[in-house]
Amino acid sequence: MDPLWRTVGSVRITHVSDCFAPRTGGIETQVLGLARAQIRSGDQVRVITATSGPPFTEFPVDRLSFPVPFDLPIHPRTYRGVTRLLNENPPEVVHVHAGVLSPFAWSATRAAHDLGLPTLVTIHSVWGSFARPMFGISGAWLKWNRVAMSAVSDVAADHMRASLGVDIDIVPNGIEPDLWARVGVADWEARPLQLVSVLRIAPRKRAGALLQIMKELRSLGVDAHLNIIGEGPERSMWERKARKADLPITFLGRLGPAELKLVLERSQIFIQPSVKESFGIAALEARANGLAVVARSGTGTQTFIAHGTDGGICDSDTGMAMAIKYWDTNRTSLHTILEHNAQIPPKYSWSEIDQRVRAAYQRAIVLGQ
After folding, report:
1. Model's pTM, two decimal places?
2. Which residues contact 30 (CB under 8 A, 6 or more apart)?
3. Rounded to the nearest 5°, which phi and psi values hold at 169?
4. Per-residue pLDDT tens digits of the chain, which is 369 residues long
5. Three-state secondary structure string covering 174-216
6. 3-state DSSP of the chain
7. Which CATH superfamily is domain 12-174+349-368 in?
8. Residues near 299 by Cβ (< 8 Å), separated by ≥ 6?
9. Which of 43, 283, 310, 319 has the smallest set of CB atoms within 10 Å of its CB?
């Protein structure tokens, strides 16, 4: 069999995702970025999604949307609809993108398998203690039916291996480092210390930890200001609590890439408080912009942040506050990290991710034989 990364001809790839544009979350942006990279490589790409929206003009997108409350990306006849679409435009490989709860994606996986199509499933989240036993039931089916599995980081893969008992490829998320590179010379001596965090303001992302870190910094005598970028169901609550505590925090809401980059370029340290981060796209974008990144240990952010070189990996929220305190007191140490990050672009460009995905596709084909 010719490898899928052959230089002559193109590969027919169908991506399946519960969520896609015009939604702007992590999985949505990753599916779009990967599809664009594959098209640049000469491949023929389609997307099947449960997300409603206007016609997509860059490449074919089939929307199996269904009118349900809150515009949830589900469809009562996913299996039938996906089967029909895959029969109408048969791909060489189906790439399914899923989180913890992705009924559309999992039903589509069964449809692709039953059609005899090589299938790769990429999990974009970390499975918690509740999810692992539930997905353990799926392990036998996946192993018996030869569906290739992948995760976006070693941390996410470890949880999957514990549940499924199958081999897991690592297919990291990607960015365009040049688009996020800092323009001009930053004022690393700026005071107050400029902090930034980008996250969905929801329980899983732990926005409340940011307020606690800012309280600890105040008690440690650190003069710092934090910009929080993002929306979510808890925004009004945390904004109200920050105001009541008189914390130097500004909630900027959701920003487009150009606006986000402007905020990053005025910042020195990026804070990622989540303890269930499968990868950390926003942190990688901040790292590409030259910021020092401080994050919790045991998360996918450790994939691209080396403690002491790119930023700090800490075991607790208090540890994150202490790391920021250390950098504020020892500006030379902070400068070393900032200069390193500004001068050495991170890995995980889309061209690199494209090649890793193709290797995973090849394994999916071999498994399906």
Report:
1. 0.89
2. 97, 124, 173, 174, 281
3. -80, 155
4. 445 444 445 899 999 999 898 987 889 999 999 999 999 999 999 999 998 889 999 999 999 976 555 555 656 688 999 999 999 999 999 999 988 778 888 899 999 999 999 999 999 988 766 555 555 555 555 655 678 999 999 998 888 887 777 889 999 999 999 999 988 766 677 789 999 999 999 988 999 999 999 999 999 999 999 999 999 999 999 999 999 999 999 999 999 999 999 999 999 999 999 998 999 999 999 999 999 999 999 999 999 999 999 999 999 999 999 999 999 999 999 999 999 999 999 989 999 999 999 999 999 999 877
5. CECHHHHCCCCCCCCCCCCEEEEEECCCCHHHCHHHHHHHHHH
6. CCCCCCCCCCCEEEEEECCCCCCCCHHHHHHHHHHHHHHHCCCEEEEEECCCCCCCCCCCEEECCCCCHHHCCCCCCHHHHHHHHHHHCCCCEEEEEECCCCHHHHHHHHHHHHCCCCEEEEECCCCCCCHHHHHHHHHHHHHHCCCEEEECCHHHHHHHHHHHCCCEEECCCCECHHHHCCCCCCCCCCCCEEEEEECCCCHHHCHHHHHHHHHHHHHCCCCEEEEEECCCCCHHHHHHHHHHCCCCEEEEECCCHHHHHHHHHCCCEEEECCCCCCCCHHHHHHHHCCCEEEEECCCHHHHCCCECCCEEEECCHHHHHHHHHHHHHCHHHHHHHHHHHHHCCCCCEHHHHHHHHHHHHHHHHHHHC
7. Glycogen Phosphorylase B; (3.40.50.2000)
8. 126, 155, 272, 274, 275, 276, 277, 278, 280
9. 319
CATH topology identical between 12-174+349-368 and 177-343: yes
CATH of 177-343 among 3.30.450.40, 3.40.630.10, 3.40.50.2000, 3.40.30.10? 3.40.50.2000
- In the structure encoding, which two tokens stand for residue 331, read together? 């500006």
Task: Record the tokens describing residue 144, joined without a space.
Answer: 């018996």
